[in-house]
Please model this.
Amino acid sequence: PVLPTKPAEGAMTNIYELARGLNLKTQVNFQPGTLASRDRETKSNYQMTLTLNVKQPKALTKKEDILNINPKLGTMLPGLSTLFKHARVSPYYGQIYVRKQTEIRKNLASLLKLLDRHNYYDTETILETTYPDTGRKLLWLQSEMDVVSDGSDGDRLSTMPDKILKSSFYQPSTSYRWKKRTDKPNPLLKPWQQRLASYKKTLEKASAAEKPALRRKIDHAERVIEELKRYSFLISEYDPFIVVPLGVVNQSSPFSPQFGDYAIVIVGDKLYPALVGDAGPRYKTGEGSLRLSREINPKAGPYSRPVSDLVVSYLIFPGSADLEAGPPDYEKLTAKCQELLHDIGGMGKDFKLHQWEDLLAPKPPPAPPAPKQGSGNPAETPANGQKKADAPADKPAENPAPAASPVTPPAPEPGKTAA
Model:
């Protein structure tokens, strides 16, 4: 009989920990061999064949199916029936899933890098439709929402916390950008300059094998620094924007969104105006800025998605971007999205667009303090004023107060004007 033995400490990795998101079934086949000293020399005598079985989903195409996800969409969007009547599955849907399959094949040998079940099934549909009365084109993406936390703009936000300034993962830029409008330096410029200096210093003593990777880091840092000197970007913590996969954004199709296009994100009975602000992995959909995510779910954070189910509707309006890029104008954002909704059948009377507050707008100066009681001439009461008005002009007031003694008035206090 074969007796089980306990492996040495640290000699075995629990494959269930590596296979996050997989429904893992295991089976071991033991076959007769020869001598251990011989069998151990042949690798095929101790091998594992890994087979991953994945169901390929179909795109949602029916209005009834989208209403099962969010029943409020029927009253929220009066033009929903027309939109779905003229909708077709976007080629981007098939492309997304081909890229998912490519990622899985590439990383199947490393379960730590394998795309898990949650992120494989993250795209319910991508539809292209045109509203016939107006010709307005719409790209409808149905997905979940993960969080992006990138971006910087020295013109609007001159300081950022140390956890961002010292982070090795925070990206200072977004794909949507515009030329700087002030001389204020980007708060991430100095940290990246320090990083570049560190790379160059390390390069001087690096081995030949280490130098190629360091040179790539130096090239990247130099590009980032040049961008930070010239451009401003969206800021995830302050600006509502969404992320669209590479391979979908900035393509030649009339349904391909461009950076700066307007979008409306629908969750439940809420409609959130947003911008197409950044590009993400080619095989992943459903991502919003930290500002947008926390408005949907206050518990959201860089490592905590606001919505895990496929209940988020991203209504993207290709070709709607302003001619000149610039920082978000929140009143214009709402007005423009209201206009775009009108172009696809309008919005139900019981609903309204969320109105974003510009958290980075200059604050108005505080109002001057009210005058203190007892300073200057004593305030007259309404009763006193009325008595004076009623008294005849040629009749002296009864019981007049004695005249004040002629004394020198006190000097005014520093900072005050004498009455």
